[in-house]
Specification:
The protein is mainly alpha-helical and 220 residues long. Helix content is 75%, strand content 0%. The chain contains ten helices and no strands.
């Protein structure tokens, strides 16, 4: 079964992809400012947060050179986000709620477009879903590692699950031979709703709470 890549190359998808890159890049730049990095360090975190997930996916499926490297707009958007955040950090902090909304929308779009691109390159549906999730969360994970922090997606936050749900919708539509446009919209909306509900309700995945004092007593 072949999959049509035309949907993922439309102007709308490209525009939303760049918007998502910009929002994720802002989150990376903001983390850099909080960790007192210089302008170069802030720019690096911005690019990583906005593009690392897509770059990793493209390398794994053989779509080289990755879009984030071959298309100058991705680098430009990331640098712009870094500059805005670096010199206007207090203003960015005041827009934190709005950025969370765009972040949720960007996560959904990255997840569905990443899944579709993987399917278009003949990747197994299950692995395509995982690559779609990776597209959405990969940049944030590497961003956190670079500042010596445990990635937020590994600490109970309903983030990777939302991306995986969006990817699952695309896979279901692919297996049922549904119109790709329908599954794209449905998957992105589902991800957005899950993230928004998690933010407002404080949802988190269960975590195993260890008694630190008991662990210290057991250690030699």
């Amino acid at each position: 079964m072949t999959y049509d890549l035309q949907l993922t190359s439309t102007t709308l998808i490209k525009t939303l992809d760049l918007i998502g890159t910009f929002v994720f890049a802002i989150s990376g730049a903001a983390l850099g400012v909080r960790n007192r990095l210089d302008l170069f360090g802030v720019a690096v975190l911005a690019f990583v947060a906005g593009n690392a997930g897509g770059v990793t996916r493209d390398v794994l499926i053989g779509a080289v050179p990755p879009a984030a490297i071959s298309d100058w707009r991705y680098v430009s958007v990331s640098i712009m986000a870094a500059a805005v955040t670096f010199w206007w950090f207090h203003g960015v902090r005041q827009l934190s709620r709005t950025i969370l909304l765009f972040d949720a929308a960007g996560l959904g779009m990255f997840a569905v477009s990443g899944t579709q691109k993987a399917l278009g390159y003949g990747v197994n549906p299950l692995l395509a879903a995982l690559l779609g999730m990776l597209t959405g969360i990969g940049g944030g994970m590497i961003r956190d590692v670079l500042v010596n922090d445990i990635p937020i997606v590994l600490r109970g936050d309903v983030y990777a699950v939302a991306a995986l749900a969006a990817a699952a919708v695309v896979i279901a539509g692919y297996l049922l031979r549904l119109e790709p446009t329908v599954t794209t919209v449905a998957g992105a909306i589902l991800c957005f709703v899950i993230r928004l509900a998690a933010i407002r309700s404080g949802w988190n995945l269960p975590a195993n709470v260890v008694d630190q004092s008991a662990e210290k007593q057991r250690s030699p």
